[in-house]
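Notes to self, Molybdopterin molybdenumtransferase:
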Amino acid sequence: MASAPLRTVREHQQRALALCSPLPAHRMPLGDAHGLVLASPVVAATDTPPFDNSAMDGFAVHAGDVTGASPDAPVTLRVVGDVPAGSPTDPPLRPGEAVRIMTGAPLPTDATAVVPVEHTDVPTGPGDLPAHVAVRAAAAPGVHVRRAGEDTRAGDVVLDEGAVLTARAVAAAASAGCPEVTVRPRPCVGILSTGTELVTPGTPLERGQIPDSNSYLLAAAVEEAGGIAVRVGGVGDDAASFAAALTQLAASVDLVVTTGGVSVGAFDVVREVLDAAGDVEFVPVAMQPGKPQGLGTWQGTPVITLPGNPVSAFVSFEAFVRPVLRRLAGHADEHRPTVVLRAVEGWRSPPGREQHMPVRTVDGGVVPATGRGSGSHLVASLALADGLAVVPADTTEVVAGDDVTVVLLP
Ligand SMILES: Nc1nc2c(c(=O)[nH]1)N[C@H]1C(S)=C(S)[C@@H](COP(=O)(O)OP(=O)(O)OC[C@H]3O[C@@H](n4cnc5c(N)ncnc54)[C@H](O)[C@@H]3O)O[C@H]1N2
Ligand code: MOO
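result:
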């Protein structure tokens, strides 16, 4: 029997991405939006800093009063006020007067500079307000003063549409006085693993049974990619049970990912059900591991069906599911960055298939993480991988010393 032509990884990726668009945006409290993508810019409600303030614990002065101050010729000023951080007071300062001030406290309107406490005769640390202070160093006008709006001005765009709310971006929005942001929600992904051999991890194994690792793998991978996973444990290789579980799951999520049951076996239930009733195509992809793939929709919900071998399921998630999840979440860049590293050991790659080899970074390069092959069942050693080396379809052997393109994994 003639075998079907293989689809390229890139084409299958494009078809997976075409299954969905970014999710509709919502207003959300800033504190709940970490990691999400902005669907509207964040515009500053206030200046940052909101007022002129001190950069040091010390004394606010008229700069002109201390022009000639030095350790040998200190200038003594009368202390007429105290402004801790958070104080709304604005004590007046006449010539020859100073105000004790703390870092972040509003600079008195009359003051033009701040002298750090270390440059005075006042001890550092807690203490009563002194009556006088001897200043031992000159302070130019504006020194140790942080100006209102020098970071951003009210009305400035502090974060653009499409920006990811990293911890730093969340801080920018908070300091700009924005309690809410417009973001795309976390995609909700249903995970359904199939196989009569699957049992919950920890269940004593009878002959033929194995722990279901794929549904745990994929739920964790969804969460690492910023989604919410709804994990359904192993469903047996029974068409009616699978169809019922799929229908229930598809009704409540943005995307369903299944594993197992997509190749040519006599009990490949995913293929059997979706071939008959879903709008899903099953194609061999020129990828190793991860050749048997399917994608389409089930009752309007996008579905991506991954092969059951655990390493295949993982590399397929990285190649086809993670980009879709990122598109749903509104990320402009759907793919992980790659680096070029040296192969410290060589390995073979099948002709005509783009190999996604789990690798481990070592000093000076990478080595295969799962032994010398890419055995798609080697799930335990997959945990040692911190990258996927992508070997082009026309390369049949990576030789020690070759440069390889590596997708770095967290
Ligand atoms: N005659 C052929 N047989 C196979 C072919 C082929 O072209 N012709 N392709 C092989 C390749 S490549 C792959 S990949 C697998 C894909 O098969 P399925 O997607 O149908 O997966 P299953 O048969 O259900 O399972 C394969 C393997 O993975 C284990 N598995 C399945 N689910 C899980 C899970 N949730 N957790 C842990 N391990 C799981 C399962 O026990 C099998 O060992 O087909 C090859 N066969
Ligand atoms: O394509 Mo399979 O995924 O090689 O093991």
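- Residues 193, 195, 197-198, 210, 212-215, 234, 259-265, 268, 289, 291-292, 307-310, 312, 376-377 surround LQZAQKY5 (ligand 1) (CB under 6 Å).
- The two ends are 42 Å apart (CA to CA).
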